[in-house]
Design a protein that fits this description.
By secondary structure, the chain is an all-alpha fold. It is 69% helix and 0% strand. It folds into 2 domains: 48 residues, Homeodomain-like (Arc Repressor Mutant, subunit A); 145 residues. It has 9 helices and no strands.
Amino acid sequence: METDNIAATPGKHKEETATPKRPKEPPSPRTQEARRAATIAKLTDAAIETIVKFGYARASTNEICKRARVSQGALFRHFPTRGDFMAHVAEAVFARQIADFETNYLRDDSLPNDPLERAIRFTRVVCQSRLARTWAELVVASRTDEQLQEKVSEVFHKARKWAREAARKVFAPEAVHDEERFNAVVETVLWMFEMEGIYAHLDQDEQAAERRLQVAIQCYRQYFNEQK
């Protein structure tokens, strides 16, 4: 009677059936979008740092990518040109300034409780921030850069509208009777602080800065006194 030979043949091993590898699933759209957003955020942060340190003209994509630890290829996958990227930076600066105001305006314990003085002092702080210095560089550069000028002009008009509306909310809409004059007061004070921020590295006179701030407060108080 023959029996099956189940013993392993010397020198041979039983072949193992290889488990087929599952095909690698492509990243989900949500994951791709999260990665894209993270890359753009790193590039934007690096651009702001570079512009503040070196100025707009010397803020090369090479330097920005080094700071962001992102390849230039990655930058140009998201933005076709340096101009497109800088236009994005202008928009991002505006968005971050709004977020800063909405997040910190009422939380800053170093500011006075008086709504008018609090608003004016906080505006001055915002106008001396890194974001404000970046914006100033972009504004100056836009004078001779048509592509950048288009975006900066768009952001400027949005910022002007937002500043007027924010000021009305802070000082109560019912207190604003002469809207054109109120807007003029808002913009005069705002632009004074913006210019102060531009010259901050040249003028370190804090006493003079405080006097200018008091003049700004008086401008607002005079306007509201005239409305009574």
